[in-house]
TrEMBL record:
Its membrane topology: Multi-pass membrane protein
Domain ABC transmembrane type-2: 48-280
Keyword match Ion transport: no
The entry's keywords: Antibiotic resistance, Cell inner membrane, Cell membrane, Membrane, Transmembrane, Transmembrane helix, Transport
Transmembrane intervals: 47-72, 78-96, 122-148, 154-180, 192-213, 255-277
Protein name as it appears in the record: Transport permease protein
Principal location: membrane
One of the protein's GO biological processes: response to antibiotic
Length: 288
């Protein structure tokens, strides 16, 4: 078959070009293998192993609680501040690990990418799955702490938790596809990700109440702040685990609207990330 005939053949695929995120679902077995590899190598050679999934958030909580809760007296200003704080930390940790993993997924699997062809999106999606697996112990710990403090089950709370988690995963995957593709040729992309992660804890109501921004910021800036997918996600976590313990605490007006806006931003980010990824994926093997 000549090149021209092959190029017009409907079954002909350009080498190095996949089907985007659709190709991930058509290669679920390969995805499961990559996720298993990521889980088993995460703590390879570590004595504590999976215990580190509890140690890091525990250390973060202790440090922030002593500074923000005790020294700055947020423990008195915000009811059940330990649950409020830990819910935010768990949400931000999921975003941090998901974005960091997806950004470095291609460079971490450089030897595999150079040898054989796989749909390139498999690597960041599998990295996202590994981040989700390591998030689950923290979520279970949050649930146990909230239950110990008097939390009661509600379907609205579970729905808020799922919405917040989906916001984080979609937003992190979109950013990870974008920066991961650029990171193959320009390692500066990793530094931009580090900057984003450095500000992520402070750009959402994790260590402070959203009312502080509402009282001090202009309305237009407050609306931008609340439309941030991470702000909406953190507030969804608070709605799920903290508000049932402090029902008289002020709730953000139009939170669902802000969550929808944050979801639209996250989906738009995912589309842009996929387009950039598709544009650059043909050069991944040689650049790695």
């Amino acid at each position: 078959m000549t090149y021209e005939a092959a190029r017009t053949d409907p079954e002909f695929d350009t080498p190095g070009k996949g089907q985007g995120l659709i190709g991930v679902f058509r290669n679920r077995y390969l995805l499961s293998l990559l996720q298993k590899k990521g889980r088993t190598t995460r703590y390879h050679g570590s004595v504590l192993g999976w215990v580190w999934s509890y140690v890091r958030p525990g250390a973060q909580f202790l440090m922030y609680y002593l500074v923000m809760g005790v020294i700055l007296d947020h423990n008195r200003e915000i009811q059940f501040f330990p649950v409020y704080l830990f819910a935010g930390i768990v949400a931000v940790n999921l975003f941090s690990e998901a974005l960091r993993n997806t950004t470095s997924a291609l460079t971490d699997n450089a030897s595999l990418i150079r040898k054989i062809y796989l749909p390139r999106e498999l690597f960041p999606v599998s990295a996202l799955g590994v981040a989700l697996v390591h998030f689950l112990p923290q979520a279970v710990l949050l649930f146990v702490v909230a239950l110990f403090c008097g939390w009661t089950f509600s379907w609205m709370g579970i729905l808020a938790f799922i919405i917040g988690m989906l916001l984080i995963l979609v937003f992190a995957l979109g950013l990870g596809l974008f920066f991961g593709a650029i990171n193959v040729g320009y390692r500066d992309a990793r530094n931009f990700v580090d900057l984003i992660l450095m500000f992520s804890t402070w750009a959402s109501p994790v260590l402070y109440a959203w009312t502080m921004v509402h009282e001090r910021a202009p309305l237009w800036l407050y609306n931008i702040y609340m439309s941030n997918p991470m702000t909406a996600a953190v507030e969804m976590f608070h709605t799920a685990f903290w508000l049932p313990l402090a029902p008289n605490s002020p709730r953000p007006e139009h939170l669902l609207v802000f969550a929808l806006i944050g979801g639209a931003i996250a989906i738009f980010t995912l589309i842009i990330g996929q387009l950039v990824f598709r544009k650059l994926e043909g050069t991944f093997a040689q650049n790695l």
